[in-house]
Amino acid sequence: MDKLGYFNVFFDFIQKVNPMTEYDRQLCLEYFKVEKFEKNTIIEKAEKIHLYENFIVSGILRKYRLEETGIETTTAISNKPCFFSCFTSYTHREISDENLEAITDCILIRARREDIDLMLKKGKTLQNYALLVFQHMIDQQKQNALDLVNLTAKERYLKLLNQHPQLIQNVPLQFIASLLGVTPQSLSRIRKEITI
User: Which CATH fold would you assign to the domain 3-125?
Assistant: First the structure.
């Protein structure tokens, strides 16, 4: 796939949420860049301000925190075309407590915060789109918090399996367990129960 092919994935994603003008497409082509990252690369590190808005064209990304105990806590994983960044750090220009890691080889479309700000000022539809994306992120975080409180570990696993089966097949189980808030041993038991 060439650069335009990558951007077509990006534009198709945006069009589903908000119609885009040709002028806004050209702005995106000017300010966003295609970058490739190898498996196990830390794309943005904790203890720094995260500078980029990332869009996944292909591959799997995860966000995780390194706790004082030395344990990694996975906070999000995605393998579908979507925006995927440490939003609090990026939006508020605060030092992040999360790392952003490529679990597999990844192709991303990225732009720096300053360039996004310029695009939002110049664009015709991009500001409205940015608000919709931000609202979606807030809603997703609320839903994840509700799931942790209201669903059992088994129900959370089944929901993930139903909504994102490729993650279960391609992501190390310790990352899935951490995302679900259980130990790898508990996740193994849950998986055995389901297959019996």
Answer: Jelly Rolls (2.60.120)
Specify whether the CB–CB gap between 97 and 63 falls below 8 A: no
Determine the average pLDDT of the residues in 124-135.
Answer: 78
Tokens of 132: 């919709």
- For 58-108, how does the pLDDT look when each residue is reduced to its tens digit (9 = 90+)? 999 999 999 988 899 999 999 989 989 887 887 788 999 999 999 999 999
Rounded to the nearest 5°, which phi and psi values hold at 92? -95, 0
Q: Which two tokens stand for residue 180?
A: 């679900």
Radius of gyration from C-alpha coordinates of the chain: 18
pTM of the model: 0.88
Joined together, the tokens standing for residue 3 give: 């650069």
Backbone dihedral angles phi then psi of residue 156, each to the nearest 5 degrees: -65, -40
Q: Which amino acid is at 109?
A: I
Q: Domain ranges in the chain?
A: 3-125
